[in-house]
User: Fold LysR family transcriptional regulator from Aminobacter carboxidus.
Amino acid sequence: MTLEQLRIFVAVAEREHVTQAAQALNLTQSATSAAVSALEARYQTKLFDRVGRRIVLTDAGRIFLSEARAVLARAGSAEVVLADLAGLKRGSLKLAGSQTVANYWLPIIAHGFQSRFPGVALAITIGNTETVAAQIHDGSADLGFVEGEVDDPALAIEPVAEDELVLVAAPGHPWTVVPPSTSEDLKSQRWIVREQGSGTRAHFEAIRALRGVETGSLDIALELPSNESVRAAVEAGAGVAIMSRLVAHASLKAGTLVAIDFALPTRSFFVLRHKERYATRAAREFLALVRGDAGNS
Assistant:
């Protein structure tokens, strides 16, 4: 059994499709099928059932998938240690960020890191706060950056920056003349919000409660999966929204959004890391850059 066979098996199992797995691995379909068949023949165990054009894991395949992932994770850890021994001349660092952080704050830090360590490949995935926390928990990312609260005892959580929230509306909206001051004012307009699980939505709900507005009493016009879609909807006059000033900045400057005079609390950006996983030198240097003490780590 080889690591390559395990990688192929996991790729096929996750996609339940040989052709898609082959494309993802840059292999031919025949080579991918042969690797899976070799595993099944060598151990006389059927790992997949063929159902029409699809394949599905057998019970044995599901059990083996967990073990295969664990072996590949350990192999990946060994590669990380060797890369660390070579210093920061080469290697990789996997980052995960929630949308506001990853799109508007993290790229500047990443650029600074790449300028100092061009041999280290950076990969950034974007999701909401919940998905980023899950990636750090399961080891599929080295460091996570989020704007929402995370409750996971396996993760170390550290505030690294402050973010200003702003209430925005399209030009000509009544609140640009007379800002809201009561809970009834807040209930009188339609709202555009992010999806459940996002840090921005969690802060929106906290602000709603702080202002004495009951759950379900606001008129939610749209629930959207990205900051950009929320911003576009507000610009089109579909409603009002609370978002990061980082997200609204270009639109406020262009005049397609107006910041409403409405006091909102600041929020923190947090870095997440797993307490028990090995922190590579690349991860330590990136954290030092985020904290502003690069060169002292």
